[in-house]
Amino acid sequence: MAKFTIPEEEYMNPGHVGCLGCGACNAMRYTLKALGPKTIMSIPACCWAVMPGPFPAKCLEVPLINTAFEVTGASISGIKAALDAKGITDVTVVGFAGDGGTADIGIQALSGMVERGTDVIYIMYDNEAYMNTGIQRSSSTPIGAWTTTTPVGNTKDWKKQPKKNMMDIMVAHKIPYAATCSIGYPEDMIKKLRKAKEIRGPKFIQVFAPCPTGWRMLPENTIEVCRLAIDTAAQPLYEVENGVYTISRKPKELKPIKDYMAIQGRFRHLPVEEIEAIQKTVNWEWNRLLKLEEFTKGLVEQ
Amino acid sequence: MKMVMTGNYASAYGAKVCRAEVISAYPITPQTSIVEKIATLVSSGEMKAQFVKVESEHSAMAALISASMTGARTYTATSSHGLLLMHELLIWAAGARTPIVMSNVCRANGPPWSVWADHHDAIAQRDTGWMQVFCEGNQEVLDSIIMAYKLGENPNIRLPTMINEDAFILSHTVEPVDVPEMEDVDDFLPPYNPRFKLDVDEPYGFGSLVMPEMYMEFRFKINEAMEAARQGWRDVEKDFEKKFGRNHGGMVEFYQCEDADAVLIMAGSIASTAKDVVDKLRSEGKKVGLARIRIFRPFPVEEIRKLAGMTNILAMCDHSYTFGHWGPMAQEVRGALYDLADKPLLKNYIVGLGGKDMTPEVIEKIYLKTLALKDGLDADIEWIGVKGHGGW
């Protein structure tokens, strides 16, 4: 069997205005490589609302509609309905939104879109805060993180709440396909996107997309932090197909979460006991995921 | 074919005869029978449309903007709080130049809760870039939808239109309505085929960031289109009349205004009652008239100025309000008259909010009050029928 390779075709041209080391940039590039030119893209307010370049520039080779912040799910529902009305069946409709636009302000439109069984791909590129507006906390910001609205200060006001689990929320909608992927593992990401393209109904893809600016880390560490996120299980790679969990990458032994945190400035204020508490949560979540995989595999056999 | 139907069914049939391809809507009283009827028409196969049953009005409008950008003819209906929730997307729809047509069943806004008619929901959307029609009857509701697609889809206009029908008074009251044959509508209204749309063979981008040196140009072009739509409405109604044999009076309908001592200006269904009152008062020798604002955006400045040559006393009956100033339509009428050397006197009445009944008796009292102004204006503005404040 031939080894899977990343397509050579480029549908994202040079000229984007993202920051150095931007993970969302690669997320778009791999998405288009996977899905090809017969794709219509809807983008709400987020970094990617700016990144294609200001009018009349546009670095993407696919049709693109900019929409309001909270409407991605509704927007792609409308595009799909119009294509259906016109009898166009060979076009993939994609919503490409940030974590704030997905897990916070856009969750209603997303929920409606999934509940209606809309045949589209919704991609949440997860940089774990409102990065386009300047690093404010979102519900997808991990516990312990500094942001400009969780500024630590004298009162230790870092983010106190755990990250919202969008995958669980999608699975609760009985979505046909949901997957996490990471720009640190492009083959896995492209494989999942191509799978999503072939499945009819709503698909949800959560792409781990580090933001060096907001995570207070060196731009050259973007891929390194992606790898550490997998190796520490800070952000595991898995997919859920019709309720059945499959973990895409299982480290033989998890690295400690402090390794992942240490190369990012956003966690540097955390005292040892906080990191230990976070380690316990990470372990618990990882074990839960292993159990989910085991349990749902059993369901398939039945 | 002549049928007896409510304003809401007239709206649904309007969408049907125009072959709207994508419907997206969310239920709200008193709009619900529009979406129920469309759902029935779609499920029976009589209407070939994709009906996206969204989880909010906000999503309804967002879905339609994207559907329209993909080249589909689109329709929705809402009311009151649903319209208010859409506000952000109404501006987006005009900014994206999507010729969406929407029925708005005019209903008061809460709190306190009210499901009855007034125009504040629609008026609050004045500056969104939507064309706005206020209907007097159910035939006009249906016909205006056809005209709105025809004009809105004109490449020189490309603007969305809101068709306003009063809650219950039109939405749930039956009248005979002539539903045009679809083939005749097809002759009048060709399929929507925009030059620019979301198309993988021509991958344009829409709505991207513009720097300050280009933003104002986009807004200027919307205003240009809105200005052109003023003549557009006059022309489209003439074309409509040629095809279907009826009109609804142009941008402003004048009723017995020519030699009037006093003219009330109204919008929406109360104008229908007022016409009866005009007839009665005329039969008693009182020279009164009625001007009905049918198109509110673009604002019919020339028509309003014509009124100045017909009468010395004007009174605008606003079915809505602006707290801290005159009624919204009164402001616009006053603005239109400002440049005239010989201006009629203008009074503003705030009437019928939250469904407060505008009976012939109430309207007659307003006429008599207005005729009495020949000796001078008693007040700029008067709220009619408020308990404890001269309520009748």
Structural summary, described in words:
The complex is a heterodimer of chains A (302) and B (392). Chain A is of the alpha/beta class and 302 residues long. Chain A is 39% helix and 14% strand. Chain A has a single domain, classed as Thiamin diphosphate (ThDP)-binding fold, Pyr/PP domains (Rossmann fold), CATH 3.40.50. Chain A contains 11 helices and 8 strands. An 8-stranded mixed beta sheet of chain A has the order 2-1-3-4-6-5-7-8, sandwiched between helices. In chain A, helix 7 links the parallel strand 5 and strand 6. Chain B folds into 2 domains: 243 residues, Rossmann fold; 132 residues, Rossmann fold (3-Layer(aba) Sandwich). In chain B, the strands form 3 sheets. Chain B has a 7-stranded mixed beta sheet with strand order 3-2-4-5-7-6-13, with helices on both faces. Chain B has a 6-stranded mixed beta sheet with strand order 10-12-11-14-15-16, with helices on both faces. In chain B, helix 1 packs across helix 2, helix 3 packs parallel to helix 5 and helix 10 packs across helix 13. The radius of gyration of chain B is 21 Å and the shape is globular. The model of chain B has no long low-confidence stretch (mean pLDDT 97). Classes of the chains: A alpha/beta (302), B alpha/beta (392). At the A-B interface, strand 1, strand 2, helix 3 and helix 5 of A face helix 3, helix 5 and strand 9 of B.
